[in-house]
Every structure is written in C-alpha cells, then in structure tokens.
Amino acid sequence: MQGMPSHTLELGPLKWCANFTRTLGQRLTRFPEVGGQRGGILRLWREVHDAMTIAESFIVPHTPLDILDVRHRRRDSALAQLVAVATRSGVVRDPDVLLDTLQQRERMGSTALGKGVAVPHAHSIAVSRTHMVLGRSVHGLEWRAADGEPIRLAWLVLTPSEVSDEQHHARVAQAVSALRLQRQRQRLFDAANTEAAVRLLREWNAWMP
Amino acid sequence: MDAVRQMMRVHDLDALLRQVEVASVWGRLGYALEHPVVLERERERLLAGLDRRWTTLYERGLKRYGRGLTPVRERACLGCFVQLPSSAAPPPGECMLHLCDSCGRLLHWG
After folding, report:
1. Contact A163/B at CB under 8 A
2. What interface predicted TM-score (ipTM) does this complex get?
3. Sign of the CA dihedral with A24 first, then A30, A36, and A37 last
C-alpha cells in the first residue's frame, strides 16, 4: 500500500488497487511500445498513480451521519423527512420503497424505545450504503411509544441488504446503547453539527462508519 | 407499481419477517415485535401481482440463500460477487429484473 495517498482510503484499499491495476493494464495494452522501453512500465505506473491521485482528490468523503431538526409532529411525516435527508446524501436507491419498509416496520411494533427516543431502522435493498440520520424535535413527535412520551430524538439506521442481519442488528444496538443515558441523549440533542455528534459517538465507542 | 419495486418490497418484507424469527434478540434492545400477520398478508398480495416466473425464481433464491433478490454494483452481483457480462445490463434509465447466471438470484440494477 506504499505510495497510496491517504484520501484514497475512502475508496477502500482493495478497490483502489483493483482500479489501479485495471488502468495500468489498459495503458499497457494501448501503448505497448512504451511498456517495451527501458523504464517504460515504471513511467506508466507513475502516470497512472498521479492521474488517480488527482481524480480521487475530488471525491467528497462520505460521512454516514446526518443531523436535522424535524419540522413535523407526526411519525409518518417525520420518517418521510428522515428518508428525504438520506436520499439527498445519495444512499437511497428508491425512497418510496424505503419509506414503505419503515412504515411496515412500525406496523410490526413501534420503534419508540421510551424516554423520548425512537430508533427506526431498515435493512433494505432500497439502501445502497450504511447511513444514519439523527432527527431532533423540540416539540416532540407522536410515535406511539409505550410510555406515551413524545419523541425528541429519532435515530434512523439504514443498512443495505447485502450486509448480514447480524451486522444490521449490531448497528442498531450501538445506536440504542448510545441513547441509553439521559446525559448522552442531551449532549446529542445539543450537538451543534454532524462533526460534533460524530465526536461524541466516537467518545462513547458508538461510532461504526 | 412496477415489478421491480414490487419485488423490492417483497424482499424488504422478508427481511422484516426474519427479524420476527429472532424477536427475542431484538427484544433485548427494547423492541416489541408482534405477530406479523399483516405483513404476511401484504407479502402474499404483492407476490400475487407479480409474474409467476419471477416469483418462482425469487422463492427459489430465498430458500437456497436466504435472499432472493440482490443488488448489482459496478456490474458485480452482490450475492455471489461474480462480474456480470455487459450484455446483461438493462438499457440506461431502465430498471428491469434479471437473473444472475452464476447464483440464480434475481438481480436489481439500481
């Protein structure tokens, strides 16, 4: 992995190497005379490396957490707003299917866990990347919680279908555990932005990007 | 509703039904999962609206691998990770159901 620029780790080392090898192979096929020259392969190697470094510096690092202030009071509207935010982050293949899945999940039993917290979650084919959306509501959401309390924090956990059931469960479990303590819930509620929330989650070992 | 979306909904319902099978595990997190008769009915309704050919293939994949529908990323089936031929890709802008020649799962080109 030596010489691999650090930001390319966003792609993942395997994918980076696969891209690099493929591009180098294409160059060698296209310019066989350069490959035959003394030091030619090394020149092509450097060329491809530099080209990929420049191209990948434009990739925006993906932060798998969004924070928003929920405007709505009702559960379904709030879910739609959370899904809309995830869709804007480019992690949803089909927002209608995802919203339907989340609503079906609520029909199976409320995802409100009490004490003003709900962790709706979907392990869905409509999701392309793992993502989380933390919705905060000052007035509280009507979520049919067992304790009847309005929801102030709704943490949506999205996992793509290719990920195993166990990993999905682990992600939800981390979200739930991060919201167990009152002081942690309050600190998350008061987090100024995504970076601050991610810092808090890292601090509590509840960050699983 | 088109066939692809309908199949995606069936796939997600199956994922939810799998959660009910391990309700005690989810119960430890504080979730109460009730008997999913409503979901089973919805699943049957969706499957009834689909072509028999696709439902048979879906059920076969589900029985064999636990998932009958799998997404495609960069021309690779994410079920078996085999690179698919470019001829298998639907025309740009279209979304159709296909079958993975390698593993037999239905493919979703998203």
Report:
1. no
2. 0.92
3. negative
